Description:
Layout: H1 2-15, H2 20-36, H3 42-56, H4 60-91, H5 96-118, H6 120-137, H7 139-143, H8 145-168, H9 171-196, H10 203-218, H11 230-240, H12 245-274, H13 276-279
Helix pairs in contact: 1-2, 1-4, 1-9, 2-3, 2-12, 3-4, 4-5, 4-8, 4-9, 4-10, 5-6, 6-8, 9-10, 9-12, 10-11, 11-12
Amino acid sequence: MIFFFLAWHFLLIKLEKISLYESFKSTCIAIFFNLIIPSFSLSGEYARIVYLNRYHDIPNEKLLAILSINKFQYGLAMIIFFVFGLLLMFFSNIKFFALLFSLLIVIFLIITLFLLIAFPNILKKVIIFILERLAKINTRINDRYESLIEKSNKFVDEFSFYGRYLLKSSHSILTLFLMILQWLFNSISFYLAFIALGYPQNLGVLIFTFPIISFLTTTAIFVPANVGIVEPIMIAIYSGFGIDPLISAAAILLARTIIIVEDLFLSLPFVISMGIKSKLFL
């Protein structure tokens, strides 16, 4: 949690003056609601933005800008981890087909990220296409079609702008580095879990696959933290790398339990003490 918090904090103080403690509070609030309420991580980000806006008078425009950069870095860290894990697997002589599959994932992510930043019109066209189809079957969307198009175009333009800003800002390099450190420590948790069970695994495989775990956890829609969904998916992926399913299941349960309980334990006192649950969502 600590490096994720620092990555957010250094972006936040770039635009607003706020104490380290208050920034930490906002991060704990976001983590707590993201884990408890399955909403594609929207609940936690909403709670963080409302808290900072309501109690520290930070404009929503600035907060959304910071959030855009933060999420961009999240995606960039994912690609870096894929590449780093791929290199480790290559030098550890992991079987060819696993490497080929991994390489295809990395190439797809890099190309997608580049297109979204460099050519925002592509994303606009995709959104317009989706809205046009939805408007034909939903009268409410049809009535608000022009407004939705305007808002989506504005969002895409901001995403592209702040993506370019991130690439040019030397200050953001530090926050990206902090996020990578957090991912590294979390992936090592899975590495240590396998060691604790007496079955050490290739670190490259665990680093490469950790972004998948992180992505599945943060995109929960039906179940908090996608508990019961992440585990069988990761068991299947680990099996593709030759790891025994029973050992994988035990290691995943051990590592995820420690990480989730730790995040909830650290964030819960802030949520309770400030009455966030009753104030933010009324």
